[in-house]
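User: I'm putting together notes for a lab meeting next week and I want to include a structural view of one of the chains we've been expressing. I don't have a solved structure, so I'd like a prediction I can at least talk through. The sequence is below, exactly as it appears in our construct file.
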Amino acid sequence: MLEKIQLARPWFDERENEAVRRVLASGWVVQGPEVEAFEAEIARLHQVRHCVAASSGTAALHLCYLTLGIGPDDAVFIPSFAWPSAANMAKLVGAKPIFVDVLPDTYNIDAEDLERRIRECIRRGWGRPTAVVPVHEFGLAAEMDKILPIAVHHSLKVIEDAACAFGATYKGRPVGNFGTMAVLSFHPRKSITTGEGGAVLTNDHELAERCRLWRNHGQRVKNGQRDFVLPGLNYRLTDIQAAIGRIQLAKFPGILEKRRFLASEYFRLLSGHSGVELPLDVPEQTWQTFMVVLGEEPNRDGVIAGMASQGVEAAPGSVAAHLGNHFHTEADLPSASRLHRYGVALPLYPGLEPGLVPRIVTALCSNLA
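Assistant: Thanks for the context. Below is the predicted structure for the 369-residue chain, given as structure tokens.
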């Protein structure tokens, strides 16, 4: 019987086990020295002054909105083809998420459509344009040189959603350096994982300090005395998770090399196949996900089910958040809608043997007929 090929799987070994044992033996397991060291190492890699670890990438987005004072009457511009965390958190603080279409080849926010949506928001009185959240989808940085001038022109805060783009660069510069703030995720499908976890990146000291307040119950300690200066949350990361994350960080160069090699194998084997549309091949891409886009025929769900019957796990690439029922929008976003309906994510993780890629490709192509 053929081994089942999973869509994704974290790369753990005895090093993570030993790191967890070390923390458990120390007796300090919640937001202690391991978290501080993890934050410092991430800040160095992304070349930012401050990193604030959090319990998830979604929590990190919530911290950004709260820290920037985003709330009712504010409009936040978000690419639709992305996990809906940024839109959900906008609604949670009372702001209005306004969805923007994406580019058909990079899957990232379309700068021209962003400009159109901002002007439409102003014209229709949907709210005060306040922030834009460019998502670096699947590890490929958005076109920040086009987005930033629009943000400056309209006085928008820029929150980079780099949840899928740990360690990615844009024109040689690490993501997280372009906006007012940025977020990372350490979910098991990301390039490095702590099980769950996330982080806020910023070069602004005051914003970082305010994030830390929101993260930890709004608590400030001065002269040994506690004070609660705002109605904060508990979005702390544990030292257990941070210790795992530090081992993952040490592995990251090898993880990235493997992901890029596997992506190159997909390109080699699928190039020229008329039944699939391949993503743009960009050297700075970190390949959190490798997604192909099918035509209207065959049925995407049928292809995924057929691959599963052959022992290969695949899945929809992502979602177009504007199609979610609770957002109640009639926006016409053709690229996001198409990717939502026809995108297929293929297995990609550092433990995947390259020799299995031909089997994955065969399973995909045999179900396209």
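A couple of points you could mention at the meeting. The longest strand covers residues 74-79. DSSP finds eleven helices and 15 strands in the chain.

User: Perfect, that's what I needed.
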